[in-house]
Specification:
Strand order of the largest sheet: 6-7-3-8-9-10
Order of helices and strands: HHEEHHEHHEHHEHHEEHEEEEEEHHHH
Structural class: alpha+beta
Radius of gyration: 25 Å
Oligomer: single chain
Shape: globular
Distance between the termini: 59 Å
Largest sheet: 6 strands, antiparallel
Number of helices: 15
Helix content: 40-55%
Length: 475
């Protein structure tokens, strides 16, 4: 794909409009007058549930989080993608001239780097210190709390104009004053199910008449719907005013980094004066500062975020102090006054570091095993329904162990449309992630985790199959 067309991607989902070809999309997005007059469709909000597992006072605590991910109509998505590329190029020029190594998310690096590399770089920096304070900070709300006035000013500033041109203003309005409808509501309106894929024919969810009669009366402000889906009220500091941009649009990531640009620069400069470093991956901030400077560094972040109407999620702030004890670097948790508590690993972007070993976060492996056990049990139920005494292990091994990452199992086991894997099986990619983490960090602890996870899977498959054989024999 040439550079000029790198914004174009045909999307397979069904929406209120039909997919359009590359020439049609180019005719639309490259005409500022057409963009300024374009009637943007409502976004469809698809609540994504994620479960996190954390240890508190020696007990495993489960937390459920709903992420209000949206997807835009096909014509709208092409406009967002085109303007995202334009703004992204301008923002990268700024980073190149003024420095932007502290901004990690939603960017392309050469050579390519991902979360594993970013975590490894941070932990390597920690390991090179004799002692340091490490603070992990989460921004409250973030995408759903971005102030529209500040975003508009930052957008115009990036373009070098006092006001947004009419086409850019149309895109800005579509991102900030949009309406939405949730997938569950659509299912109710259309009898329990809706088209999820456009298919080769490029089908829409409904025709224009059905949209006007069925969907339009139930459209909501996206801002209100987001907090309803999250199951909690909008934060008080928003003062009841609409805020935020949709998560999931092709332009969302660029706008988030643009919004944070000035604050990022100020925080970076202040942390450097303290002798430390600042990293931000989306709404996850990591500070590494000399021993005893943690409180000052944390205060800097709170003040600078306050200037752009964002707040720290204090409940998610994690503080650690690394100290050398008898020549060995060790990590300890510290309270909000930075008083040392008990031994505790630092966690960043899915990896943990205790001063000696880098590991994949325990909650990540635990979550995988929950899905793996569920998939194995569903395979047992399916085998029992067929009257068979053995599981179909080929697909289980392909998805739940590293055995399926070669060529032995063929392409069929990866084809979601064939439904050869039990519903609920983890997505392909987990062991590639583990293997990448082991390679980048050269961590024996991660290699041990890989062996332990695979052994757990093999044992569970064996246990369930013996149970199935016993059940079949007794029939």
């Amino acid at each position: 794909m040439d550079e000029q067309q790198s914004w174009y991607r045909r999307r397979s989902y069904a929406h209120f409009d039909r997919p359009i070809s590359k020439p049609q999309a180019k005719t639309l997005v490259t005409n500022p007058d057409r963009v300024s007059r374009h009637a943007f469709w409502p976004v469809i909000l698809s609540p994504q549930k994620s479960i996190s597992i954390k240890s508190e006072n020696g007990r495993r605590v489960w937390r459920t989080k709903i992420r209000p991910i949206v997807y835009a109509a096909h014509s709208d998505a092409h406009i967002y993608a085109y303007y995202a590329k334009s703004l992204g190029d301008l923002l990268e020029d700024r980073y190149a001239k003024l420095g932007g190594e502290h901004v990690l998310a939603y960017r392309r690096f050469s050579p390519a780097r991902c979360n594993v590399h970013f975590a490894y770089e941070a932990f390597t920096e920690i390991a090179e210190n004799e002692a340091c304070d490490v603070i992990a900070i989460d921004v409250e709300g973030f995408f759903d709390a971005l102030d529209h006035t500040h975003l508009k000013a930052a957008w115009a500033g990036l373009l070098g104009t006092s006001e947004l041109p009419s086409d850019h203003y149309a895109v800005f309005k579509a991102c900030t004053r949009d309406t939405a409808i949730a997938v569950p509501k659509l299912r109710d309106l259309f009898g329990g199910e809706i088209k999820r894929r456009a298919g080769k024919a490029g089908r829409a969810i409904c025709n224009p008449k059905e949209f006007r009669s069925h969907v339009k009366p139930h459209l909501r402000s996206r801002h209100d719907l987001v907090w309803e889906v999250k199951g909690k009220p909008a934060p008080a500091y928003l003062k009841g005013q609409p805020a935020g941009i949709p998560q999931g649009l092709p332009i969302s990531a660029v706008l988030a980094n643009l919004y944070m640009y000035d604050a990022d620069q100020r925080i970076q400069q202040s942390i450097r004066k303290l002798g430390g470093t600042y990293r931000r991956y989306s709404d996850d901030i990591l500070l590494i500062v000399p021993n005893g400077r943690g409180a000052e560094a944390e205060s800097v972040v709170k003040i600078e975020l306050g200037k752009i109407r964002l707040q720290v999620n204090s409940a998610k702030t994690v503080r650690c102090r690394f100290l050398r004890k008898e020549g060995t670097l060790r990590s300890f948790s510290v309270d909000e006054n930075f008083i040392v508590q008990s031994p505790s690993s630092a966690s960043y972007l899915g990896l943990t570091f205790d001063g000696r070993n880098m590991r994949v976060r325990d909650s990540t492996t635990a979550h995988f095993m929950i899905k793996a056990n569920r998939a194995i049990d569903r395979a047992r139920i399916a085998a029992a329904a067929r009257g068979e005494s053995r599981l179909k292990k080929r697909q289980l091994y392909a998805r739940l162990t590293s055995l399926g990452y070669g060529t032995a199992y063929g392409d069929a086991v990866y084809d979601q449309s064939n439904q050869v894997l039990p519903k609920g099986a983890p997505r392909l990619g987990f062991f590639k992630y583990l293997q990448l983490a082991a390679k980048v960090t050269n961590s024996d602890a991660i290699r041990t985790q890989i062996r332990q996870i695979e052994n757990q899977v093999f044992r569970e498959i064996d246990r369930v199959e013996k149970r199935l054989e016993k059940h079949t024999a007794s029939r």
